[in-house]
Structure formats: C-alpha cells, structure tokens
C-alpha cells in the first residue's frame, strides 16, 4: 500500500486493525494474482513458528478475507453500481479497491457491524493508505451502498424484490 502517514495505531480497536490487515491481504492477493484465502492460510501457518517473525492473523481478519473472497463478484458488482459514470472498478487504485471490498463485505454480509462503522473505518483506512482524493469518493460509494440497503429506499434490492412479488401476485390474480 502507499506510504503510511503518521498515525497513532494504539488508539485503534482490534477490529480496526483486523480490517486494516484484511485490506492489506486483499491488496496483496490482487497484486500477486493469488487467492486471498491462500495468503491467510500461509500466514496462519507461518505465525505458528515464532522464528518466522510473522504476526498471528486475527480471527476477524480471517473472517473478512474469507467472506470477501467468497462474495467477491457480488461485492465488485455492488461497488461498480455506485461508481460515477466516468469510472470503472479496474481503473481505481488497487488499495482503494481493497478497502472498499472490506467495507462493502461488512455492509452487505456482516450484520454484527453497524453500517456507519464500516463506512467510517473504510474512509479512515483510505485516509491512511491512499491519496487525498480517495476518502471522499470511497465515502460516497459506501454511503450509496448503505442507502441502497435501506428498506424504505425505492432502489433497494428488498424493495425491488417486493415490487416483483407484488407484480407476480397481481398477475396471478388476473388468471
């Protein structure tokens, strides 16, 4: 990832550090064209031997990476849906893709994490690791993903499914 800025990492929670490491692993996997789950498995194995100097991999880091790897197509489609018309996912810096993938996985697939937390910490990761333009557009994309999840949003998946079911019910009642 890009040059680190001066940050007091001690103030960050264990979950934040797990997110940061998950983004690091997602970034590394994409750059090396390797399965991120394989990287996790290697790191867990290497961490067992203290002579290797590899830090243990937090359980939450493993959960994020495995979950994001399993749902990568859905996550990428979701991110692409909310990018501006001028941008495509492959044109965004790899570090920003990794950060958004972690945050979008939490928003879509981890009910234990409040959406606001996933958004704020995703933006904070972007502030630490990316350029000055990244935090605002990552914030916008993540906010759009969250807004689309809202049941009262007419563009949400739940609303679309309910509308489709209403149409089917109405069509069936006409028979």
From TrEMBL:
Molecular function (GO) terms for this protein are:
RNA binding
Q: Which UniProt keywords apply?
A: RNA-binding, Transcription, Transcription antitermination, Transcription regulation
SUPFAM superfamilies membership: NusB-like (SSF48013)
Q: Which residues form a coiled coil?
A: none
Specify residue ranges for compositional bias: Acidic residues.
Answer: 166-175
User: Its Gene Ontology biological processes?
Assistant: DNA-templated transcription termination; transcription antitermination
Residue ranges for the region (Disordered) are: 152-175
Q: Report the domain of life of the source organism.
A: Bacteria
The NusB/RsmB/TIM44 domain extends over 17-146
Q: What does this protein do?
A: Involved in transcription antitermination. Required for transcription of ribosomal RNA (rRNA) genes. Binds specifically to the boxA antiterminator sequence of the ribosomal RNA (rrn) operons.
What family is it from? Belongs to the NusB family.
Would you tell me the protein name for this molecule? Transcription antitermination protein NusB
Organism listed in the record: Corynebacterium striatum
